[in-house]
Amino acid sequence: MNISSLNSAQPALRNAPARSAAPSGQPAPAPSDSVVLGQQQPAPPQQPAPPAQQPAPPAQGQQPAPPQQPELKEWTVLVYSVSDNNLYEFLQSDLDEAERVGSTDQMNVIVETSHQPKGGNVVRMKLEADQTEGLTSPVVKDLGPDHDMGSADNLAESIAWAQKNYPAKHFMVIMSDHGGGWQGANQSESQNSWMNIADIEAGLKKAVEKSGQKIDVVGFDECLMASAEVAHQISGAADYMVASEEVEGGAGWQYDEALPGGGKQSNRNSRVFTGEVLNYAAAALRARDPLTPADMAKGIVKMAEGHQRDLGTMSAIDLNKMPAVTAAMDKFATAVLDSGKTKKDFAVIKLKTQKFYEFADMGHFVELAGKKFGGKIGEAADEVKAAMGEAVIAEQHSSKYPNAKGLNVEINAKAGMTGGTNVQGEGGPGLSDEQMQQLVQLMVMGMSPDQLQMLSQAMPQIIALNQQFHAQQGGGEEIDPSNQAGPSNQTGRPVYDIPNMNKDSQNRIEFASYDSVKLSQDTKWDEMIKKVG
């Protein structure tokens, strides 16, 4: 019997004919339990229906079953967009692209951004799909004009708040702003604040402590953050990291137009990263494909392949495999130190290694050293390569970076010093005669006879220019740090150069030194580069 038939069942006496009243003159029945023989008896009164059966109380000591909870969404994505600086227009365009996708029945898309509108308050929003230009999603929390998004404590609070208010099976936070590899990220210009990578680590770990929930993926939509130092620092705070070895956007910040398929008008400021990621995730979830944290991380790398003008490199790192990588790096550094190699021995290797702004590709640097020196250095280099093969689960690069392996690293003895490729002779600015010879050796590799002749003709002028540069800079004297970009006005304070950040802003920021970075403390890498870098 189905439920509807149970509801339509009626008492058996409902349709019985009504009885006539007793004939006139007949005495009414005595109000007693006796009956009069021969006299028709009234029908017994109808009994009330038994009450609905109640669930049995739990046995003694047994807890009642908790009320059924609504099914969790698959993902919550928090975009932590610290746009209180000269990237404001670009970062707001990112959010506008993310709003094309918005939250879905399987994914919450939450944003914290400063300032809405420009110069206004820091706000939190739940993005709802919208195809018109400009952010239209509702503000769910207004944090006021003075909220500091460059604070580790506020990063932790934001993540924990999103995890509590928008619970899901998986959680990803995308930090979007200026980045500088091991030098840190997330600049709030109005608050003169900046997160060193120890601050980022502290913010992520404190969020996990506050919410009791893990962070599956950390994305850095920021320059140079696919760094061995960064990955080592935040391992233990999340499972996967996605970032770029190179400056995002390329030289001159040439940003692509908005991605197709969303219906919004083209936006020349879009940096493509966030909107494309969400499109990928939403499509996978609509198809009911299982979107694991590893899949999400790999998917971001795959999306970057189609936008290599802005995203020339992108890597996905399994942070749980980083301890093996850093152990291998330590073994490599120890082998180099034990070998007695010098800056002179490593000069050509440094010149040939794939560069990203001031940093070098770690895998390529180690590989070149292993091939040149062999022995224990070569064995240690092989171990680094094997460990990276496990940790780097996805990597893409354009033809401009043919030797990108997934993680950049510091290889300069004066870590953090500005100057782009950070090329400086051992005795001061310019190249020494020996380094000039090494440079020429590199230049002639693969040259045709005609090209070699042209180089031979130009060499006297190149040598003269190098000597002139030495003379202008005072021979072997070092460049005065006050003439360099970045915060350099305090004696002994390191000079930094965060790509595309306003230099006046950098002067007001306290940057950490390389020896405060966890990789420097846990391995001999810092000691090695001071000797051979």
Map the helices and strands.
Blueprint: H1 3-8, E1 73-81, H2 88-101, E2 107-116, E3 121-126, E4 139-144, H3 152-165, E5 168-176, E6 185-188, E7 193-195, H4 197-211, E8 217-221, H5 228-234, E9 240-243, H6 273-286, H7 293-304, E10 313-318, H8 322-339, H9 343-352, E11 355-356, E12 359-361, H10 362-373, H11 375-391, E13 392-397, E14 408-409, H12 433-444, H13 449-472, H14 503-507, H15 518-522, H16 525-532
Parallel strand pairs: 1-2, 1-5, 5-8, 8-9
Antiparallel strand pairs: 2-3, 3-4, 6-7, 9-10, 10-13, 11-12, 12-14
Write a brief structural summary:
This protein is of the alpha/beta class. The protein has 16 helices and 14 strands. The chain has helices spanning 3-8, 88-101, 152-165, 197-211, 228-234, 273-286, 293-304, 322-339, 343-352, 362-373, 375-391, 433-444, 449-472, 503-507, 518-522, 525-532, and strands at residues 73-81, 107-116, 121-126, 139-144, 168-176, 185-188, 193-195, 217-221, 240-243, 313-318, 355-356, 359-361, 392-397, 408-409.
Task: Based on the model shown, name its key terms.
3-stranded antiparallel sheet, alpha/beta, 14 strands, 533 residues, 36% helix, 16 helices, 9-stranded mixed sheet, globular
